[in-house]
What we know:
By secondary structure, the chain is α/β, with parallel strands linked by helices.
Amino acid sequence: xxxxxxxxxxxxxxxxxxxxxxxxxxxxxxxxxxxxxxxxxxxxxxxxxxxxxxxxxxxxxxxxxxxxxxxxxxxxxxxxxxxxxxxxxxxxxxxxxxxxxxxxxxxxxxxxxxxxxxxxxxxxxxxxxxxxxxxxxxxxxxxxxxxxxxxxxxxxxxxxxxxxxxxxxxxxxxxxxxxxxxxxxxxxxxxxxxxxxxxxxxxxxxxxxxxxxxxxxxxxxxxxxxxxxxxxxxxxxxxxxxxxxxxxxxxxxxxxxxxxxxxxxxxxxxxxxxxxxxxxxxxxxxxxxxxxxxxxxxxxxxxxxxxxxxxxxxxxxxxxxxxxxxxxxxxxxxxxxxxxxxxxxxxxxxxxxxxxxxxxxxxxxxxxxxxxxxxxxxxxxxxxxxxxxxxxxxxxxxxxxxxxxxxxxxxxxxxxxxxxxxxxxxxxxxxxxxxxxxxxxxxxxxxxxxxxxxxxxxxxxxxxxxxxxxxxxxxxxxxxxxxxxxxxxxxxxxxxxxxxxxxxxxxxxxxxxxxxxxxxxxxxxxxxxxxxxxxxxxxxxxxxxxxxxxxxxxxxxxxxxxxxxxxxxxxxxxxxxxxxxxxxxxxxxxxxxxxxxxxxxxxxxxxxxxxxxxxxxxxxxxxxxxxxxxxxxxxxxxxxxxxxxxxxxxxxxxxxxxxxxxxxxxxxxxxxxxxxxxxxxxxxxxxxxxxxxxxxxxxxxxxxxxxxxxxxx
Length: 713
């Protein structure tokens, strides 16, 4: 079978090639939904608006999410879908559809996209030089047809390109004192008829001038880097406008776009609860119950302090997050901060479960104190004093006020504005400041527990493509993924002629794609740069590429190809015509993906990719369940390592606490024990049924997959 692809058109793209407006008379059926996961990457996000508009012609959206710029696009899409649920397509037609044109328009000699990233005071030269470097790396990257260039020669070429910009942003200045000293020495030597000394002075003068012109800019750059390293957040931009600027910064622009798309006033930020309670949404075909979340959105942010990712909004009671209003003032508009001040609950220490930890710890220490002897009592007295001191300190921190209002707030879930969740995921390292939050260190005992700072950075650091986020055992509608890739990663000769690609045949796409240059790395002369490129791609995309090969993933992920080098996804100075080309490729990809899954192929081929995908998912589920449940009954009744089996432990849960390590562990009720036994017996029956000798499935696909336990946050 062929692959879904679209050949590139000749000539430069134009605004007329972008999607037509959505027509309310041609709306998709109310029960036709899809979920969507979008990859991160700053410039890659230019493909999303046109893609989303084309997909919206054929689908309603239920669950959407993404990382970094993918999170920004997911939030904008959710705002447009929110407005569509109230009967208006203005969000799609006047918001998403025209977004590429808005970002490509000229603003103060650059594009609107570039103007959104405004440097913090004193860091504008550093930001400009960084953009010059990224632009040089992007334009000088060797193509597939070019021979690799030696690392030293390539570094010199990049320096030669950057030197005018380096001198412009960090002028060397003049060392008039040293020049006057050497010039005076040369003149005096001539008067004293000492030509050798005069020549030496003039030589040193010229050598100093030459070295000064080359080294002084680097010294100025080093001072600027030192000053930048001492700033909080380690970013060149906050996301807000610079002092004195009349143009909106990225966060302000996003807030304005979300409010316009959702048709809400600026003082009423669009929140997750608004999406959850929107009209419409899927219903259960058996019970008729409406989904608890009409429109579901998530963003992924990387917590550098915990070394893991978080899914926002966080609803996990074991991972509570807090923030301080005073620390967020430089990062969000006043309307967003006012909303958080109204709806983010301050920490009420006296009624919070955290204070209960101190109370229970104090009771335990007092019980030990009564039974202890004299040496141990002195140690317990010290622990009680530390416990009392730490409890008072944390209570004082919770009550601290700034500008007449409580400063420490708990990060809300339903009342969290979408702009906050998107900004947390969009903290591109070194470009945008990481955002400060805080949490309690619950791994220590209460007397050592403290409120510690957390730093949240770009969601793509840990996983840039969480395609599994909405997966179920069997889906009722498709979950699409979108990857924007370098054209060098096209998987076949046919795909190389296309702007977008998704396999029609589930047997396609199972093989690995070679990364250009990786096979040359290290040993061959002049191969360092391709090796570095391959190393970077492996570090950032290894997990995503592994998912892309899986049978239940590869046929629902659209690949949109762009002409870019390894670092140009951060090239904010991309030319408008290149921005248009990426947007047009996204439009074609959205059109092809929807046609493929709905059987509306222009060639008229009589098959639907959605039917094939469901069949693959069913077969994988059955096969994985057989492997996952193997040995369940044996482990349930095994008594080799413990004096009682797990089944006996279940039956005695109402008499003896199953978890003996907990303080005051609760007993199970008879109803709870009976329910657990029913579920366990059902799993055992299923394992017994599936353990029978099985016939080989004719549609087994490679590579094999597995059921795994993964955290939800």
